[in-house]
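Q: Here's a chain of 818 amino acids. Please give me its 3D structure as tokens.
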Amino acid sequence: MTSSSESPVSESPVSESPVSESPVSGRPARHVPSSTYRLQFSAQQTFAHGVALLDYLDALGVGALYASPLLESGAGSNHGYDVVDPTRVSAERGGELGRKDLVAALRERGLGLLLDIVPNHVGVDVPLANPWWWDVLTHGRSSRHAAKFDVDWDAGPVLLPVLGEDENEALDALVVSPDRTELRYHEHAFPVAPGTADGTAREVHERQHYRLVSWKRGAAELTYRRFFDVSTLAAVRVEDPDVFEATHAEVLRWVAAGEVDGIRVDHPDGLSHPGEYLQRLRAAIGPDRWLLVEKILGVGEELPASWPVDGTTGYEALRHIGGVFVDPAGAGLLTQFTAEHVGSKESAHSGEHRARREVASTILAAEVRRIAGVAAAVPAVAAALDGAPEDALGDAVAELLCGFPVYRSYLPEGREALDTALTVARTHRPDLAPVLLALHAAMLADPHGELTTRVQQTSGMIMAKGVEDTAFYRWNRFVALNEVGGAPDRFGVSPAEFHAAAAAREASSPATMTTLSTHDTKRSEDVRARLAVLSEMPAEWIDVVRRWSARRPLPDRSLDLLAWQCLVGAWPIPADRMAAYLTKASKEAKLVTSHVEAVAEVDEAVAAWAGEVLSDPDLVAEIEAFVARIEGPGRSNSLGQKLLQLAGPGVPDIYQGTEFFEYSLVDPDNRRPVDFAARRATLGRLDEGELPEIGPDGAAKLLVTATAARLRRYRPELFAGYRALPASGPAAEHAVAFARGTASLLGPGAQASGMVAVATRLPVGLAARGGWGDTVLPLPDGADDWHDILTDTPVDGAAPRLGDLLLRYPVALLVRPA
């Protein structure tokens, strides 16, 4: 890395491999990179584009490419989670030759590859594109691929919710193809089973192993398990060894060839038995491959100890890192204002339960109905229903599903989550206690039975759709906290909680991923960082929202709060992007319109709102003035959380483009093309010695990102251990600092080197009190030869004044001579 005579982000010679085991952990060797860079591959960003970017990613200092799913997916898919053929690589993304070229280019530069895989479901939007699904629709239960899908064959033909709202009218639009092999509905095509092609289109339809029904019937009557409520993503039974082999053979071929260093498993909570699946996958990839799961942990929740994985994709770290920049003192005023603005006061917990119960009764009613059918066959449950109302069992199942404090249990592990669900359900519906107790007992008696399996799979769906995709769009007190893995009811994270979490991560899962932005986050890291400033100035924020909302209201007061926060958080944002976001948000909230029950006048008003706001010059001037007030502190927060992530325990991921300031909202807004040319050019200037101002161009964030990423890659010994470093003095609460790799952390005989990361928190409050004053930061080991490699400046003594240390940037990255 750098010395005092080098540019602050100059490159060091490439080490033998950036993908290696921890130097001091003593754990089994894994192909764990120093950091990762996530790329979303698509027809617009192919493997060839990836190859062309590798010189930039190499120069940036990352250790591995983190690739979105690469298998054949639906035509035009910009994400790859709708795999239609798991036996081959995506042709749109570059095909097998393109994939091989990418792997070769990565290996040439000593970079690793982390691959995202999707074991839970496949895409069936276009049946002909998915050979397995097409065969199942053709031959039904006798299909050689029937066992791959989780279909309730006893319920009759497979229901496909593709027709218009008026089902009878839509059936009149069916036609049979000229060769009598396909049944067609507008652009949709479905197979005709052999020997069933005679007669009218309706007569042919009635003979098939499927039934085309109105799209509105999918929520309550679907006969196959889906990914959440997405009928075009059909779940596969990967718990079956033959299905595991069929769905993983191609990826495992790449692993066996040494072309993949790590696997990221999408949505493990949707699987029947995630632990068993992960044990099978670990056995297949071997002990030396990095293995991560996209598991969203609740506050205080840990991964099941039996899972042979290295960690998660890092949402729990996102909550801690982002939360430490939120001022808890802002909670009171914002809570009061929210109740006043919305017209009611509701706790986050109550709002989440209400939203979960809603989705259980509507968009996930088919799943609840299927569980009730399984439960009715359990003798003890049937006995408990004696004399109960007809709908008692369905209600009991729904209440149990809505009571889980986390996504799911994994019986026999995680029983406490099921016990809590029982308690919550009985509290809400004491009249259902006998049925609830019977369900609970039946699950404990048969932890691998169908009832237990389906309850556990579905509780995660209820949590995701009810909380992340409903309550998080309704309970809008302070939306910087409404994030995947977040806890909106906990107003920020104290430095003590932040340090405790980081130390625990280093001790128990040092190879877990950490993240700030992903393709699934509700808002990008920089939007959240800017919004965090509002927690320091709630009175001023409340004043402008009252004024702006009176001038340009939305049809729903809750959506109103969400809209103004997102508008200033992502400003400047064009009307089309903001309108698309609000359209999605209003339908996810399901308060005044929804995907299923659209209200035309509401949808029109929501779609027009952004254009009306941006065409109001006086209002735009006010918004610009307010954003000018918060954007500087917001950038300070952005730099701070980026440094804490990159220097802290775990393996940091950089989502594409976020090495610059990047103000995006939820997908698809966060999947827009990235201007890599601008980032490449800026990195070149930094390597020539430029120390940029903290401006809108993002150069300062790139400086922090590249400096920290390169240090991680070329000085891995500095990133072991963890110790909080408290500042001393009147402004001590505004500093977050920690040490790693120092002699005092690594024990007797360790090299007396080390790294210290320092970030500023609550910058508005710091400025209001007049700055750092005589606050100092005592550094570890009594050493006085530290150097800030961000500014290429020697540190003054063993306890420097923070006003001097953070004179140019609100962050510092200190290193002692190697």
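Q: Can you summarize the key feature?
A: The first strand starts at residue 19 and ends at 20.
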